[in-house]
Amino acid sequence: MSSPTPLHDDAIHSESFLRTLMRRQLGLSIACAATFLVALIGMPLLNYFSPALMATRVGGFTLTWLILGVLFFPFVWIISWVFIRRSIALEEDEVNAVNLGRKL
Amino acid sequence: MATSLLPLAFLNGVDPWIFTFSFVTVVVTIWMGFRSAKTSKTASDFFVAGRSVSVGWNASAISGEYLSAASFMGVAGMVMSSGYDALWYPVCYACGYLFLLLFIAGPLRRFGAYTIPDFAEGRYDSPVFRKIAVCFVLFIGFFYTMPQMKGAGTVLAYIFPGMPYWGGVVLVGAVITLNVALGGMKGITLVQAFQYWMKMFAISVPVFVLMAVYGFYGSHLNANDRAASALATGPAAIVQTVDRKPLVDKAPADAPWIAPFGPLTTKAAKAAGLSAEEGKPYSLLYTYSLIIALVCGTAGLPHILVRFYTNPDGVAAKRTTMWVMILIGIFYVFPPVFGVLGRNLLPELYAATGAKGTDKIVLELPRLINERYGVWGSVLSGITCAGAFAAFMSTFSGLLVSMTGAVAHDVYGRMLKPNATPEQRMRMFKFAAVGIGGISILLGAQVEQLQINFMVGQAFAIAAASYFPLLFMSVWWRGMTMKGAATGMLGGGLAALACTTITNLSDLKIVNMVEFWKMHPLLRILCEQPAIWTVPLAITLMIVVSKATAAQVPADIRMKMLVLHAPEKLGLKQEYIQEHQASAGH
To answer: How far is CA B209 from CA A38, B147, B204, B361, B381, in A?
Structure first.
């Protein structure tokens, strides 16, 4: 509101700013998703190729039941916690960088 | 005396404790709805609750809405009937949220549109596309309301043993429809937050009591392994043994039940007469297709995404998702316990079908405690019934609000009568609520023979092939055009819709396809769980058509992408709106 005409030649509106922004965000998301997908895709494969290992009994549970029915949930919490911390930090970083650029 | 009166015949055999708990839940829910109806007056209150809900309330409300009859009753019933394979459902219901958080929640929230159709229109500047997108709110919504209605019919048939299945569907459907028509979403936020905690209490307390009386989760699973109990030495001996009842004929044997690739995923291959070894690749395919449907489908559920707009800012929206994941993650540990205990303690349910089958294990199991501790079993059973009521009532109301919103806000407010007054819009909201509620009841009355969880999986499969590719690609690829997005969403979504409809028609024996499925087990799996080919189909169509129509990429795409991705503190959204209005010639 302070500036009546939007300045389209400043740093925020440049092609390079958008590219870096999207690349950094997508990079973070993909890193977190990859960790999660390895586990999610790996479980059926483990069940398929080493059924004996996955049927090992742990406190009455089969190993595969224990992982899928109980341990998978905390695993997902850890990934999302890391993601949220990093993505909030990333946003602050970007805001600071832009404000610094505006002052100069 | 009551027994001699014909109209009250359905009250025969009603357990007063169970009846009391469920009745109180319903009355409290309706009372809260009516109370908040007085405070919600404006049209925006009805649509997104004035956009000011705190993180804690919002997370509880999302979880309350998300934990449907499928989570509360269906997961337990399916674990009991199908064993290990059914565990993918609760795991992926919870994990789908992670995908939503990683790729979609933040950008969509920054873009700031009420609903997915709003986003579709804003991203491509195309009112036509909005009309296409609205259809899927209704398609997915109706597929998702059917299992809720089955839950309602099952619970009422349990509380009132004389009542027919459809009676429960009509009663519950009518009550909730009335509540939504009068209260709108503000009431729903409050009611649903309360209902999350009610469901959590109702699923966890009976589990702890049952485990204290009949043996631990692990001990019950251990009993499903003949080899271990025969040895009774080594590590297995540490685990206490439990009493179990003999299985009935219809129940699956222990070995396939407890192991991966069991009855659920091998059904098609078995029907085709393949051996266990030949059928295994089919089971793997089934499992992956199910995982894709559930994980991608969460991101495309119309009634969940709307809630991200009720947070004050993007950071709060992310925190909300974190809390939702914790709240539903804890919840999902419990329903499979019912399934496992139910297999050993109440195997009679395997022999029954429809509303009397395994889908009611959560309701029936706590009652066993009556054998040892007087009425306490009935009290606990009453608590789980109350939780089940909370489950299908909250999900059904949430869906009804989304679907009604789509009809009143999009079809009526934007297409039929763009200059309607707020009073006309409010009246339309109420009419639409009644109409959609009525259709849901009719559909729900047809599906007694289908498993609750299975039907919810189908709604997820349609969402996964339509909204998920739309949102994901629109947010991260600037080369998308409206034609590409529309072709992909329609291609993938309608293919999934057709497959699930065919599967249901043949499972309900409306169309006889038994012989065909026997000949083609692969087709049966790809039809029953279509996500593994419909999601890639949708994405491929989007890319190919967008490339072909690359000249039609919106002119201000860089600005749109900035609004989607730049931190809200930079204030680009305001600038975008001003420019947009200027260029539209206002």
So the answer is: 37, 28, 9, 16, 11
Q: What are phi and psi of A58, to 5 degrees?
A: -125, 105
CA–CA separation, B452 and A53 (whole Å):
32
Helices (H), B334-481: 335-345, 361-364, 370-373, 376-405, 422-444, 452-476
**Residue contact B561–A18, C-beta within 8 A:** yes
For A63, which residue in chain B has the nearest alpha carbon?
Answer: B259
Pick B84's closest partner by Cβ from A64, A72, A83.
A64
The pair phi, psi for residue B132, each rounded to 5°, is -65, -40
The pTM of this model reads 0.88
Ranges of H-type helices in A1-104:
15-49, 51-54, 63-66, 72-103
Query: In this predicted structure, what is the pLDDT of residue A83?
Result: 93
Mean pLDDT of all residues in chain A?
A: 84
Partner B contacted by A97 (CB < 8 A): no
A11 in contact with B, Cβ within 8 Å: no
H/E run at residue A62: strand A61-62
Q: What is the pLDDT of residue B338?
A: 93
B519: Cα within 13 Å, side-chain hemisphere = 4
Q: Are B384 and B363 in contact (CB under 8 A)?
A: yes
Q: Which of B87, B102, B570 sits opposite A69 (nearest CB)?
A: B87
Q: What is the pLDDT of residue B98?
A: 87
CA B290 to chain centre: 14
**Neighbouring C-beta atoms of residue B23, cutoff 10 Å:** 15
**Low-confidence stretches of chain B (pLDDT beneath 50):** 1-6, 42-47, 49-50, 185, 227-239, 585-586
Q: B73, B393 in Cβ contact below 8 A? A: no
Among B102, B222, B575, select the one facing A57 at the smallest CB separation: B222
The residue of chain B nearest to residue A29, with distances taken between CA atoms, is B102
> Which pLDDT score is estimated for A17?
83
Distance set, CA B393 to CA B52, B53, B171, B176, B407 (Å): 23, 21, 12, 7, 21
Whether residue B322 and residue A79 make contact (CB cut-off 8 A), yes or no, is: no
Amino acid B417: pLDDT: 77
- Main-chain dihedrals φ then ψ at residue B510, nearest 5 degrees: -80, -35
Q: How far is A82 from chain B (nearest CA, A)?
A: 10
Contacting residues of B for A18, CB less than 8 Å apart: 558, 561-562, 565
Q: Which two tokens stand for residue B547?
A: 């490339």
Q: Do B218 and A59 touch (CB under 8 A)?
A: yes
DSSP type of residue B86: G
Closest partner residue to A76 (CB to CB) among B95, B106, B333 is B95
Residue B200: how many other CB atoms lie within 10 Å? 21
Instruction: Return all residues near B202 (Cβ < 8 A) that are at least 6 apart.
Output: B72, B383, B384, B386, B387, B388, B390
- Write down the pLDDT at residue B9: 56
Mean pLDDT of A7-19: 72
- For every residue of B346-368, DSSP letters joined together read -GGGGG--GGGSGGGHHHHGGGG
CB contact under 8 A, B101 and A94: no
The whole-number pLDDT of residue B469 equals: 94
Predicted ipTM? 0.88
